Amino acid sequence: MILSYMKLMKEEAEKHHLPFGKEDLRSYASKVKLYPGVIDWFKRMNLYALEKGVALEHYIISSGLKEMVEGTVIAPYFKEVFASSFMYDEKGNAVWPGLVVNYTNKTQFLYRVNKGCLDVSDDDTLNRHMDDDEKPIPFTNMIYIGDGQTDIPSMKTVKREGGHTIAVFAGDNEWQRNNVKQMLGIERADIIAPADYRENQPIDLFVKGVIDKIIADARLKKLQHTLTK
C-alpha cells in the first residue's frame, strides 16, 4: 500500500503539472494542520524532564513522507525522522521510492533507537549483539504514541519490553476513537486519549507520569545495586 500511494502521488503530480521535488514536498508541509498544543509540546516536555535531571529525545517513525515531516515547524525537535522517502535526480525531482516504512518494518526503527543505530544504511550495527546495559535508550524508557493499525506491532513491541504506549484519536472523530479503543482490548495501548497536547490534558499528564516513573525506577535500581554490593 505504501509503494502504491507513493507511485500514485508522483503520477498525479505529473498529470496536473505540479512540482514534485524534495523542496516542493517540504513546502507543501506548511499547509499541514497540527493538533492542539503540538507546537508547544516539545519545549514544555523537554523542560519538564530537564528540571528532573534527565534528557528527553523525540523520534518520528511514520509511513508518511519524510520530506513532509521535515517541512513542518516541529521538525527541528526530532533527533531523527524515520519515514518513507523518495530518491531524487540531480535536479531534486522525485524519481523512485528510496525507503518504505510500513507496519511490519516499523519495529526495526525502534531497535535502531534502542541501540543508537540511527543510520538506516547501517544494518551491521543493528544486527550486532549488544548487552542491555550498553543500549543508549532501553525500551523501558520509551513512550510510543500511535494513531492507527500500522502502529500495533510497534506498540506490542514497546509494551512487551516494558515501555509505555498511548493510542490517540482526533477529538471529534468517533470512528477513530472506536478504532483505537480496540488497542486497549488487545493490550497494545496503556491508555487512549484525544490528540490534544496542551498542558494538563490526558496525554500531557500521562507522559509526565511516565517520566516520573522512569526516574523513580532508575533511582530504585541504583539503590538496589548499592545495597547488594
Describe the structure.
The chain is of the alpha/beta class. The chain folds into two domains: 1-102, no CATH class; 140-229, Rossmann fold. The protein is 45% helix and 16% strand.
Oligomer: single chain
Helix/sheet category: alpha/beta
* Strand arrangement in the largest pleated sheet: 1-2-3
Radius of gyration: 19 Å
The tally of helices reads: 9
The parts where pLDDT drops under 50 for at least 5 residues are none
* Overall pLDDT score: 92
Percent of residues in helical segments? 40-55%
> Which shape, going by the Cα principal axes?
globular
The termini sit apart by 54 Å
β-strand amount: 15-25%
Main beta-sheet annotation: 3 strands, mixed
The number of strands is 6
Domain count: 2
Order of helices and strands: HHHEHEEHHEHEHEH
Give a topology summary.
Blueprint: H1 2-15, H2 22-28, H3 38-51, E1 59-65, H4 66-70, E2 80-88, E3 94-99, H5 106-115, H6 123-127, E4 143-146, H7 152-160, E5 164-169, H8 174-185, E6 191-194, H9 202-227
Parallel strand pairs: 1-2, 4-5, 5-6
Antiparallel strand pairs: 2-3
Q: Which tags fit this structure?
A:
globular, Rossmann fold, three-stranded mixed beta sheet, 229 residues, three-stranded parallel beta sheet
Give a brief outline of the structure.
By secondary structure, the protein is α/β, with parallel strands linked by helices.
